[in-house]
Recover the amino acids of this structure.
């Protein structure tokens, strides 16, 4: 199959005074061109660390111990800083949770967009300005002239996130990574931004890796879902397969925790994500799992295909479809 991005067996540790945080352990997944993939899981599962590794943002005390991150077959982990900088913004762009912090407070929006257009597309000043203006319109910032002359602190959170998305469009990137792109925004703005991301992805035919702790958001915006737990991928598959027949007990619990019409009580998952300095041996979910046997706490379950593009890493996967979650 044709992969735009392929992450292979990624292992990443943080060397802290408390000990070695085993943040990612053998994470592997791929994305096809134009595909939208949702990366979900509770807090501390390793979603942001995965995104940062792809962007080349891992700094000490973090260290990538093993694995490959292939973009069109080229291993990003083998690239020198300069080559990696060339890829950021041009081929992969990152949409942050707090867009105002990600924009340069000392430059106008226009200057930043024009810089992105110049660097990524080699445009002259006049063409870069025209593209920046046009893109601001495309992301729903009608008064483009005024926005061009604004500084990030003059923008609302929603406007700043639209500017971040415009940066991705101007750079023409083929992969957008959005880490909780709406969780810092007002609820009323969240849906607008997600709708915009969907439209831009179609127009640009770029891929989207959408990081969210909300399975509902992932389902609405993605083709496929990857479920992470404590630094590992426990299940992945098409949205429909994940919702109709979740196979990992953790996925099932996440689905049961989703709000739904007529549901009175949301079922929180008992317990917490384990401390990654000393994670349980074997399956990392075993100490919270009601299907676990002694074998689970000893042996790491391998990932196996259980359907078309649907894979699970569990010794005792759930077989029966869960209709209540659909
Ligand atoms: N700079 C760091 N130093 C030490 N540990 C870190 C560092 N950054 C992340 N970690 C650890 O790596 C693990 C994964 O963190 P990560 O931020 O990827 O979680 P997440 O899934 O994005 O959670 P959230 O939903 O809260 O954003 C956590 O155990 C976290 O404590
Ligand atoms: Mg995060």
């Amino acid at each position: 199959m044709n992969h735009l991005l392929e992450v292979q067996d990624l292992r990443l540790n943080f060397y802290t005074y408390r000990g070695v945080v085993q943040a990612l352990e053998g994470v592997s997944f791929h994305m096809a061109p134009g595909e939208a993939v949702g990366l979900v899981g509770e807090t501390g599962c390793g979603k942001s660390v995965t995104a940062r590794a792809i962007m080349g943002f891992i700094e000490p005390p973090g260290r990538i111990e093993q694995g490959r991150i292939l973009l069109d077959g080229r291993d990003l982990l083998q690239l020198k800083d300069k080559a990696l900088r060339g890829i950021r913004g041009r081929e992969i762009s990152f949409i942050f949770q707090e867009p105002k912090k990600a924009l340069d407070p000392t430059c106008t929006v226009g200057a930043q967009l024009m810089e992105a257009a110049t660097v990524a597309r080699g445009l002259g000043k006049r063409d870069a300005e025209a593209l920046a203006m046009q893109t601001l319109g495309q992301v729903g910032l009608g008064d483009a002239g005024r926005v061009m002359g604004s500084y990030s602190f003059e923008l609302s959170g929603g406007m700043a996130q639209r500017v971040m998305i415009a940066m991705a469009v101007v750079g023409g990137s083929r992969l957008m990574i959005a880490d909780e792109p709406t969780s810092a925004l007002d609820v009323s703005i969240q849906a607008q931004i997600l709708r915009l991301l969907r439209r831009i992805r179609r127009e640009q035919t770029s891929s989207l890796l959408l990081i969210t702790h909300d399975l509902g958001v992932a389902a609405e915006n993605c083709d496929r879902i990857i479920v992470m737990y404590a630094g590992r991928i426990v299940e992945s598959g098409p949205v429909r397969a994940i919702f109709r027949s979740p196979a990992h007990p953790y996925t099932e619990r996440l689905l049961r925790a989703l709000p739904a019409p007529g549901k009175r009580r949301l079922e929180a998952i008992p317990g917490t994500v384990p401390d990654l300095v000393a994670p349980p041996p074997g399956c990392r979910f075993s100490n919270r799992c009601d299907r676990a046997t002694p074998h689970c706490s000893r042996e790491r379950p391998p990932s196996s295909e259980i359907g078309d593009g649907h894979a699970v890493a569990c010794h005792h996967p759930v077989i029966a479809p869960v209709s209540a979650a659909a």
Remarks:
- Confidence is low (pLDDT under 50) at residues 321-326.
- The two ends are 29 Å apart (CA to CA).
- Residues 5-91+173-325 form a domain with the Rossmann fold fold (CATH 3.40.50.300).
